[in-house]
Amino acid sequence: MKNGQELQCYREALDDHKEAKRIISEISKLTAEVSNCLSTEPYRLTISGFGMDMPLKPEFAGKQLVCAPGQWPTEQNLAEAVNRQYKTEKALHKAWAKLSPEEKKQVEPPPASK
Question: Residue 108: which domain range?
Fold first, then answer.
């Protein structure tokens, strides 16, 4: 590739990786919020669609945390999200390796693998 195509490929790979990480972050935030609520204030939790459509103790529940079936990730959602993050990270590092030293100065480096 010539004329900045490697740089463009890297930028696209970086955008794809950031999007994959955003999806994982949203799943993590949702599951952490529900977990925290179950551990500290289970009376705030509303399980929508299962005959429990209001908090158990509405008079002191405070802000309700609603857990609706459609918002909860399935096993397939989790697998796809993790697989996407893995693939985008691999593609990002591969695209970074193709950049010249001068091109690497123009963009942020890929995050370190954990």
Answer: 1-29+69-113
